C-alpha cells in the first residue's frame, strides 16, 4: 500500500506539472473530437498522432500523457455520434446506439449525453483505481486466461446476449449467423487456407471490424435517413436542453458499478477489448434489470451500461501493457510501440526503473477522467444542437466524414466500396425488420469463439475435456447458466396475480 | 520551465521543417506500410523516415495500405503504381514467403525492384523462465521422439513466417512439420501472454521483440536462429547453430518499388540508403526500432532476395505449403 501511495505521489507530481496538465487537457479535447467522428476511433487517433508527439521532442512522460489523453478522449467521444446520429463513432460504441439514440429521438439528447459522460467517468475512474491498487496481481491473473477460458467467456457472452432476442428470435438468430459468416472471411489461422475470399486480395486478412461497424451501422442509418427524407416522413427534432438529474444517477448507480466491473475484467484480458466488454455489459444488464421491457426504447440503464463498460475496459487494457509489456488491445499495442520508441521497456521493471513514467501515466488517467467530465458536461448543449442541423446538410456531411475517416486510416478504395456495399446490405436488412446489433456481435464474438476453440483443441490435441478442465471456465459456464435462468426465475416470482400475463417473459 | 519546454518543442519542430542537407532529390518521398499503423511494417517505414532524413531533399511521409497481409499493396504496385518514382513499400521475409506460396497472386519477386534493407531480425525459441527446457537440445530431443508432445505457439497463422520457424525445428529433428502441435495466435503479444500463462510451452518469436522482456527474467531464450552470435543485449544467448542444430531464420526488413521505375529514379533511392548506411545515426535508428544491422541496397539486395526466395520455396515445398 505504501508503495502505491508513494508511487501515486510521484505520478501526480509529474502529471500536475503545468505543461503535462495542459497536454492531458489537449489530448482529452482532441481525443473527444476524434472519437466523435464516425470511422476514426482510439486506435487511429493514437496511431496518427504518435509520430507527431514523437516529432515534437517532448520528454517521454509528456508524450505518453498526451497519447493516453487522446486514447481516453476518443473512448468518451465515440458515444456522441452514437447517441445523436445512431452512427457509432468507433467499434466500442455500437451498443451505445441501442438506448442512447432512442433517448435522443425522445427529446432527451442532453440528458443522454450528460448521463453517458458520467457513466464513462465512473467506469474510467473505477478502472484506474483498481489498476493503481492491484495492477501486478491483475496482470498475473489475466495471462492465466487460457484459450479454453476464452471459449467459456464467449459462451457467457452469447448467453448474456440471448436477452437481445426480441420479438422475432428467428431474425435475431439469422442476424447472428450472418455476422458469424462475415467473421469467417479471410485466411484461417489454423490451416493457412483462405476462406471465402474469391481471389480478392483485399479481404485475405478478413474484413476489419471498423469497416463492418461503419458500413452496417453508419451507412445503413444514413440510407434510412435519406429514404425518410425523400418520402417526407422525417420529423425534425426540437432543441432540447435536458440534463442528467440526481434521480437518474440514483437509478443507474448499480448498473454503472456492475458494468464497470464487467468492463474492467474483460478489458484486462489480452485479446478482448471495449467492443466485447460493452456488448457483454449491455446483455447482462438487460438480463438482470429489464423487467418492464424498456431496454432498446431509450432506457437510461441501457445507455449507462455500455458506456461504463467500454471506458472501464479501456483502462483495463493498460494493465497487462504496463505491468507485463503485453498489449491488451490494438490501441495499447500502439502505446507500447510509443514506449519502445522512447527506449523504455514496459514490464515489471518499469515501475522500479522509470517510476515517473509508469506512475505519471497512471496519475494522468485520473486527471484525464476528471478533465473529460469537465470538458464534456458544459458542451452537452452544443453537441445536442447538432440535431437541429437540417437533415439535408447533416446526412451528406456524415457520409463525407465517414468516407474520409476510413480512407485516411486504410488508404484503400476497395474499403470504401465495402462500406457502401455493407451499408446497402444493412439498409436492406432493416427494411426486413432485422436488428443489426446481433450481426455485429456475431461478427466480433464469432471470430474470437472460433479461434480460441481451435486454439484450445490444438493445445489439448483434440481432447474436448480441456474446455471444462479449469475453474475459470467452469465459473464462466456457471454464470452463463445463471444469466439465462435468473431472469426467468425472477419473472416467475414477480408475476402479477391476475392470470393471463405472458408466461416466462424474460423480456 | 514550461515556456522553455514549449520553446524546445518549437525549435525541434522547426528544425524538422527546415531543409536538410540534401543528397537525393526525390519529390514528396513516401513510404507505404502495407498494414495498419503500429505493426512491424510501420516500424520499418519509421526507420526509413528517420534514417534517410539527412539524405533526402524533402521529408518523407509514411502512409498505410493494410489489407490481405500485404497483398493489396503488392498488387497496387504491380498494376497501377508500377512506375511511381517517389514511393517505397515496406516488406519482410514474411512477404517473400507469401509471394512464394502464391498468396500475393500471380506476381513474382521479379515483378518489383528491391531497393534496400532497413535491417534484420532473427527467429528466437523462447520458453518460460521455469520451463524444464534449459537448452535447445532438450527441446529438440522431445520434439524428435514425439512432435505432438510439445505445444508450440506463435503470433502467425499456419504457413506464415512464424510457423516456418517451427517447421524448421521439426524438420531438423527429422519429423514432418504438419505433425507439429502448433497454436496460432493473433499477434506476438497474445502468444507471449499464452506462454506466460502456461497455455503453450514454447513460443517462436523474434529477437527484436524480446528486448523488452529479457530484463524482467520471466522468459528464457533457448536459442537464437541467427548465423552468428549477436551483440548486446543478446551476447549471452547461444545460437541454435552453436548448439549443433542447423537452424537459421533471418527476417529481412526492407523496401521495394514498382517494377517499371526508371533506373535513374531507382538509383536515387539506392544512393540515399547507401549514404545513410555509412553514418552512425543510421545504426542508432535501426537499434531504436529493435532491428539488427544488415545493410544491403541495390544489386546486393536483389541478389539476396533471389537467394532468399529460392531457399524459402525449398523449405515451403518440403513443409507442404506448395506442391
From TrEMBL, chain A:
InterPro entries: DUF112_TM (IPR002823). Residues 21-441 form the DUF112 domain. The keyword Nucleotide-binding does not apply. Pfam families: TctA. Keywords: Membrane, Transmembrane, Transmembrane helix. The keyword Transmembrane helix applies. The chain crosses the membrane at residues 21-40, 52-74, 112-138, 150-166, 173-191, 203-226, 255-282, 324-344, 356-377, 397-425, 432-449, 474-491. This is Putative tricarboxylic transport membrane protein. It comes from Limimaricola pyoseonensis.
Automatic annotation (TrEMBL), chain B:
It comes from the Bacteria. Keywords: Signal. Pfam families: TctC. SUPFAM superfamilies: Periplasmic binding protein-like II. Residues 1-22 form the signal peptide. InterPro entries: BUG, Bug_dom1. Belongs to the UPF0065 (bug) family. This is Putative tricarboxylic transport membrane protein. It comes from Limimaricola pyoseonensis.
Amino acid at each position: 500500500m505504501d508503495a502505491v501511495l508513494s508511487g501515486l505521489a510521484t505520478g501526480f507530481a509529474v502529471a500536475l506539472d503545468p505543461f503535462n496538465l495542459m497536454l492531458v487537457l489537449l489530448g482529452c479535447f482532441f481525443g473527444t473530437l476524434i472519437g466523435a467522428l464516425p470511422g476514426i476511433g482510439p486506435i487511429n487517433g493514437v496511431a496518427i498522432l504518435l509520430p507527431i508527439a514523437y516529432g515534437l521532442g517532448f520528454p517521454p512522460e509528456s508524450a505518453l500523457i498526451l497519447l493516453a489523453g487522446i486514447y481516453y478522449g476518443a473512448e468518451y467521444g465515440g458515444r456522441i455520434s452514437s447517441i445523436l446520429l445512431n452512427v457509432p463513432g468507433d467499434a466500442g460504441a455500437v451498443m451505445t446506439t441501442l438506448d442512447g439514440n432512442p433517448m435522443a429521438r425522445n427529446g432527451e439528447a442532453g440528458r443522454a449525453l450528460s448521463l453517458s459522460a458520467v457513466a464513462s467517468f465512473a467506469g474510467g475512474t473505477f478502472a484506474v483505481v483498481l489498476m493503481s491498487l492491484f495492477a501486478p496481481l491483475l496482470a498475473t491473473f489475466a495471462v492465466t486466461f487460457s484459450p479454453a477460458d476464452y471459449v467459456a467467456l464467449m459462451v457467457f457472452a452469447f448467453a448474456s446476449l440471448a436477452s437481445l432476442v426480441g420479438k422475432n428470435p428467428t431474425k435475431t438468430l439469422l442476424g447472428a449467423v450472418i455476422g458469424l459468416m462475415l467473421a469467417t472471411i479471410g485466411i484461417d489461422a489454423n490451416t493457412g487456407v483462405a476462406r471465402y475470399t474469391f481471389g480478392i486480395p483485399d479481404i485475405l486478412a478478413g474484413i476489419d471490424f471498423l469497416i463492418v461497424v461503419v458500413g452496417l451501422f453508419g451507412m445503413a442509418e444514413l440510407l434510412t435517413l435519406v429514404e425518410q427524407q425523400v418520402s417526407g416522413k422525417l420529423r425534425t427534432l426540437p432543441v432540447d436542453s435536458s440534463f442528467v438529474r440526481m434521480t437518474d444517477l440514483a437509478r443507474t448507480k448499480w448498473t454503472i458499478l456492475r458494468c464497470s466491473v464487467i468492463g474492467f475484467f474483460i478489458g484486462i484480458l489480452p485479446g478482448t477489448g471495449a467492443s466485447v466488454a460493452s456488448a457483454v455489459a449491455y446483455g447482462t444488464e438487460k438480463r438482470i434489470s429489464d423487467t418492464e421491457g424498456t431496454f432498446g426504447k431509450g432506457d437510461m440503464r441501457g445507455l449507462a451500461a455500455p458506456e461504463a463498460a467500454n471506458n472501464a475496459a479501456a483502462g483495463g487494457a493498460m494493465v497487462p501493457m504496463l505491468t507485463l509489456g503485453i498489449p491488451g488491445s490494438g490501441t495499447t499495442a500502439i502505446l507500447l510501440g510509443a514506449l519502445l520508441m522512447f527506449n523504455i521497456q514496459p514490464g515489471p521493471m518499469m515501475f522500479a526503473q522509470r517510476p515517473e513514467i509508469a506512475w505519471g501515466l497512471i496519475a494522468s488517467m485520473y486527471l484525464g477522467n476528471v478533465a473529460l467530465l469537465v470538458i464534456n458536461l458544459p458542451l452537452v448543449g452544443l453537441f445536442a444542437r447538432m440535431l437541429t442541423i437540417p437533415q439535408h446538410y447533416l446526412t451528406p456531411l456524415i457520409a463525407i466524414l465517414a468516407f474520409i475517416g476510413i480512407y485516411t486510416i486504410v488508404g484503400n478504395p476497395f474499403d470504401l466500396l465495402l462500406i457502401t456495399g455493407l451499408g446497402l446490405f444493412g439498409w436492406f436488412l432493416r427494411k426486413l425488420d432485422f436488428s443489426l446489433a446481433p450481426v455485429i456481435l456475431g461478427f466480433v464474438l464469432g471470430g474470437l469463439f472460433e479461434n480460441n476453440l481451435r486454439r484450445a483443441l490444438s493445445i489439448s490435441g483434440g481432447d474436448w475435456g480441456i474446455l471444462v478442465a479449469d475453474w475459470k471456465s467452469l465459473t464462466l459456464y456457471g454464470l452463463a447458466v445463471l444469466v439465462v435462468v435468473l431472469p426467468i426465475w425472477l419473472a416467475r416470482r414477480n408475476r402479477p396475480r391476475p392470470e393471463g400475463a405472458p408466461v416466462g417473459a424474460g423480456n | 520551465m514550461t515556456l522553455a519546454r514549449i520553446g524546445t518543442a518549437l525549435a525541434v519542430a522547426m528544425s524538422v521543417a527546415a531543409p536538410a542537407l540534401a543528397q537525393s532529390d526525390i519529390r514528396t518521398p513516401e513510404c507505404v506500410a502495407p498494414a495498419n499503423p503500429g505493426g512491424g511494417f510501420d516500424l520499418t517505414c519509421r526507420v526509413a523516415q528517420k534514417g534517410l532524413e539527412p539524405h533526402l531533399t524533402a521529408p518523407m511521409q509514411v502512409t498505410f495500405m493494410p489489407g490481405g497481409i500485404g497483398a493489396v499493396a503488392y498488387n497496387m504496385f504491380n498494376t497501377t503504381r508500377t512506375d511511381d518514382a517517389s514511393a517505397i513499400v515496406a516488406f519482410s521475409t514474411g512477404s517473400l514467403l507469401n509471394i512464394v506460396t502464391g498468396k500475393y497472386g500471380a506476381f513474382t519477386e521479379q515483378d518489383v525492384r528491391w531497393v534496400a534493407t532497413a535491417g534484420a531480425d532473427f527467429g528466437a525459441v523462447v520458453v518460460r523462465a521455469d520451463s524444464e527446457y534449459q537448452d535447445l537440445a532438450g527441446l529438440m530431443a522431445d520434439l524428435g521422439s514425439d512432435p505432438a508432445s510439445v505445444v508450440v505457439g506463435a503470433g502467425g497463422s499456419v504457413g506464415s513466417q512464424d510457423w516456418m520457424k517451427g517447421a524448421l525445428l521439426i524438420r531438423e529433428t527429422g519429423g514432418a512439420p504438419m505433425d507439429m502441435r502448433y497454436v496460432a495466435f493473433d499477434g506476438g503479444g497474445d502468444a507471449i501472454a499464452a506462454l506466460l500463462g502456461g497455455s503453450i510451452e514454447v513460443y517462436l518469436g523474434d529477437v527484436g521483440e524480446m528486448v523488452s522482456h529479457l530484463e524482467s527474467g520471466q522468459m528464457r531464450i533457448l536459442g537464437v536462429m541467427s548465423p552468428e552470435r549477436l551483440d548486446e543485449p543478446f551476447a549471452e544467448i547461444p545460437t541454435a547453430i552453436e548448439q549443433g542444430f542447423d537452424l537459421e531464420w533471418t527476417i529481412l526488413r526492407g523496401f521495394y518499388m514498382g517494377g517499371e521505375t526508371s533506373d535513374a529514379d531507382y538509383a536515387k533511392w539506392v544512393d540515399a540508403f547507401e549514404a545513410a548506411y555509412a553514418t552512425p545515426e543510421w545504426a542508432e535508428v535501426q537499434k531504436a526500432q529493435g532491428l539488427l544491422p544488415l545493410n544491403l541496397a541495390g544489386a546486393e539486395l536483389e541478389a539476396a532476395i533471389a537467394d532468399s526466395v529460392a531457399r524459402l520455396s525449398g523449405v515451403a515445398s518440403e513443409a507442404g505449403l506448395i506442391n
